[in-house]
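Hi R.,

As promised on Friday, here is the backbone we talked about, encoded as structure tokens. Could you run it through your design pipeline when you get a chance and send me back a sequence?
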């Protein structure tokens, strides 16, 4: 599916850390320019899943780590999410 009328939305890439029941996910989350992650989570345009790219997924109970190009995260199962400060 192409973009409407050739328009492209400017998006910012943010490093995020997401905690779910037994998972910790670190990767890139895309926000439309000047939006906040709470805007993304509460958006009616995103029904259930948020794409996270270049992700490291850790299963906390076993310490298994998977590196994937893309993981779709169910926004209703997120327990905690924070922006990772890349300037530290």
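Update: got your reply. Pasting your designed sequence below so it's all in one thread:
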């Amino acid at each position: 599916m192409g973009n409407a009328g050739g328009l492209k939305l400017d998006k910012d890439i943010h490093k995020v850390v997401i905690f779910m029941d037994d998972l910790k996910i670190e990767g890139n989350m895309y926000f439309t320019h000047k939006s906040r992650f709470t805007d993304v989570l509460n958006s009616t345009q995103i029904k259930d899943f948020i794409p996270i790219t270049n992700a490291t997924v850790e299963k906390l109970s076993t310490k298994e780590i998977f590196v994937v190009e893309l993981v779709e995260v169910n926004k209703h199962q997120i327990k905690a999410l924070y922006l990772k400060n890349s300037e530290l």
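One thing I noticed while checking it: The chain has a mean pLDDT of 83.

Thanks again,
M.
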